[in-house]
């Protein structure tokens, strides 16, 4: 225990003097500012609607639905001017009558079939509701209790927690290791009884601490006391452990940061790919779901927004635990048999 | 204390041995000098003895226990001062020692006392990056002593030091010897070896070419004669007198009686001369 504390203290001092703690704090401040100052609601309306009917039923309907006045027109010239000003918008011209409505869709850009069908369905629905003929077409049952709309500023929290922890654990531990290689201090460390496990555990503990110090304030800012902190922190700890150990296992084989950089960046990019799935949940090819950050980010999302409990995240915990054990074994081999031996200093 | 038998090491596994057939034994409390030029195999032997390199062939034993059977606790008894100072540059001198003190299972020396001993008290709380080469060398030396080792490996411990500081380090080395510490001193500086070592081994091209006490080597390889400088009619002349020739004895005594003798130099060989004689090459 004495030598672990000595190594950990030394790692903390080195992390502080090398600016790693400052970088972590800076990231925390930036992300906290994003959470605090991003809008809670980021609704955008992509259509400009012109209602040419005398009664203006569709225009009234849209106003009742809270659509901003600037998207609703009853004058053709103003409508054309609006479309010219904002070519990215889709124009919808309504004419005819409620019994035989006619719609013209004007767009300056390609519009895919999926969006076109959605637009047509929403216009159909609007006309039916105006006529009073609308009814629930499909019965929907929910697997979990419904939660309210997730504020936009909080939606980014799973991403900023998981991917920044991945970045911290992977990148900074490699930087520390290359610093030690450059100073050849591992040769001196080797002539002590401390050994590889002490070295690995100290680095892992440092990055667990940094990850929690980064992630916990963001969770408190975003959610107060309303989430299961035990599970959220478990996810942070597992992410940090796995990436720190994985990074140690790989970085040992390179002589310098510049040698490692290309491989390191590729690994980081691969780990960041699940961000695409987080933004577009329908994009989830099988291979992507095996990337460790994929189950992590969705488990964190479920814990934070859907009150997920142990049962819902246990598969992720088991998967990450297995990966952590593998990463530890690889890190032990690399540190004990490569880093702490002559010829690689 | 340390016994080395039939030691070989091959870095590439192609049968090109960096060191071969190395035999020696170091007695407890002895300062054993390992002398040779760069690339002779000194560091290879030291790295094997300290466990930095694997023991491929041969036997190394400490107090009768094979190096192969020693566990990590063995390092509690070991101190190593590296030739190239390898320190945490962002830690202060004090922190460097404090950190390494925390890695051992045995009682350690006080970092400040060690820093004082190597004349680094004033720089104790400066980062090692800001140290001069000599200061870093002294800090590495102090670090080697932190666990009060029974076996000390010193690789060029006075390299880059001014004569005064080098004397401080030499005094500490002799003090450790008096305390019973066994010291393996690697150097290519013959004067250091001559001053400090009880015995020295010359290594060249991976093989030990001579091993004995410096005095014995000098007597064995030197000439039993003296060179005398004396004044003669206002000029200085010199003449060599054999210690084994009776005529030379009389001639020398007669010269002494004239009162003109200025200097007398015995002609035992220096360690450097012996090394050149044995290997055909210098030490630097």
Describe this structure in words.
The complex is a heterodimer of chains A (345) and B (284). Chain A is mostly helical and 345 residues long. Chain A folds into 2 domains: 229 residues, no CATH class; 85 residues, no CATH class. Chain A has 15 helices and 4 strands. A 4-stranded mixed β-sheet of chain A has the order 2-1-3-4, sandwiched between helices. The longest helix of chain A is centred in the C-terminal third of the chain and has 30 residues. Chain A starts with a helix and ends in a 6-residue tail after the last helix. By secondary structure, chain B is of the alpha/beta class. Chain B has 2 domains: 217 residues, Rossmann fold (3-Layer(aba) Sandwich), CATH 3.40.50.300; 45 residues. Chain B contains 9 helices and 13 strands. In chain B, the strands form 3 sheets. Chain B has a 6-stranded mixed β-sheet, sandwiched between helices. In chain B, strands 2-1-4-5 form a 4-stranded antiparallel β-sheet, covered by helices on one side. In chain B, helix 3 packs across helix 4. The longest helix of chain B is centred in the middle third of the chain and has 16 residues. The two termini of chain B are 30 Å apart.
Short description:
The complex is a heterodimer of chains A (345) and B (284). In chain A, 66% of the residues lie in helices and 6% in strands.
Straight-line distance between termini of chain A: 27 Å
Please state the CA-atom Rg of chain A, rounded to the nearest Å.
27 Å
Report the helical percentage of chain B.
25-40%
Largest sheet of chain A: 4 strands, mixed
Fourth-level CATH superfamily of the largest domain in chain B: P-loop containing nucleotide triphosphate hydrolases
The low-confidence runs of chain A, each spanning 5 or more residues with pLDDT under 50, are none
Tally of DSSP β-strands of chain B: 13
The best one-word shape of chain B is: globular
H/I helix tally of chain A: 15
In total, how many domains does the architecture of chain A comprise? 2
Helix content of chain A: 55-70%
What pair of chains forms the biggest interface? A-B, 28 and 36 residues
What is the element string of chain B, with H for helices and E for strands?
A: EEEHEEEHHHEHEHEEHEEHEH
Largest sheet report of chain B = 6 strands, mixed
**SSE arrangement of chain A, N to C:** HHEHEHEEHHHHHHHHHHH
